[in-house]
Amino acid sequence: MPAVPTGSPAPAALRGGPPPTKDPGHDPGLHSAPKIDLALLAVAIAAVSLSAPLIAATAAPALAIAFWRNAMAVGVLTPVALLRHREELARMGRRAVLLSIAAGLLLALHFGVWLPSLHMTSVASSTALVTTTPIWTTLLLRLRGRRSPALVWTGTGVAFVGVLILTGVDLSLSSRALAGDALALAGGMAAAGYVLLGAEVRRTVGTVAYTLVCYATTAVLLCVTCVALRQALAGYSAETWLKLLLLTATAQLLGHSLLNRVVRSLGPSVTSTAILLETPGAALIAALWLGQMPPVAAYPALAVILGGLATVISADRRRAATADLAG
């Protein structure tokens, strides 16, 4: 399926990838991705690792934080889209627009349930649970008829064991922490749908156009929710506004936007699995910055999660080698 013309090129970090694959269920994976996409994926993971610690340290309502990080990102992307991608926006088909709006709805749900969890449980536990995205991504792909290799199921299973170990730490602390764990887990489920819808839209639509529609939808939904729940959207200190700007620049624009960029070439399985690296990254930042040292039991849990990630990547490489021999 040919890509939609994009007009003038966007900045390197936001340009679209190679031509889309012919099979909508195909997950390109690491073996076929341009080197620049692998580098951008690393930058994205580092950027989203700042999200949980920054949110935990920001003195503003959780849903308001979610609204502002999306609204500010829309403010940055709108002039870029109108000046360089106007034709692409105009040519977005009805299906692509509807899928982008649906992705924005799921992203709003992701933020709406995850951010409150950061004030109810530890940063390490919340981040680990919200990054169970690859587990739900694999299940959703299976429901769509795409069979994943046994090693992918093994890897996601291993990662889930690590999640259970980390959740068990909070079970011994309080019922409030358990409720926070449940919200974070729901956030991971919503993120899986968001990643899959984004991968589908990105087959024919560039990063800027898709991201603008998606973030705008998310911002509107979160704004309505904040107003309905009477959460303050202003009146913050200068320090809080600075943290909101930093959150937008790092976790939103460098994090989520670059993930939207690379999902086209890497595919939803590898992209969502790589997000697991956010867990140790956020825990390290929280320990160094907030002094929030995770319990001793959290360390083996993080190691198990990373072991599951390594297994999924190994499955991708074996699948690539098998495909090359068959070709």
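That was protein one. Protein two is written in the same sequence-then-structure order:
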Amino acid sequence: MIFEFTAAKIAEIAFGGMIEGGAGKLTEIAIEKLNLLRQKIWNKLRGNPDAERAIKAVEQGSKPELAEITEYLQACMDKEPAFAQEIQMMAKEIQISSTQDNSKTQINRDNAKGYQVETVNSERVQFGDVINNP
């Protein structure tokens, strides 16, 4: 079963960064996808004055209106499954893009050996000993 993003999660991904003061540590690719998701939601909710007001308020940093956007977005997702699937996929891509650059390096020392471990997105990782000759 494929995990589906809820309207609340999608609204949080699309507009949550505005409330918290920016895109944070998103990559350029994730930011481009995020802008496309916001535009897609804007286009769908355009014509609904309450939804437009809520989006404008969230863009100014107001958190309570995020719940309103979620309600309007959920209604659109219920009416149009194709739209729901499209924005769910976009939100998933943004989340994947934003987590890909979270690599961390850890150095483990065991007796006289030191191991440096780095989290990478690769199928092939080389792990070996570091030998220091005096």
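Residues 7-99 form one domain. Keep this in mind for the problem set.
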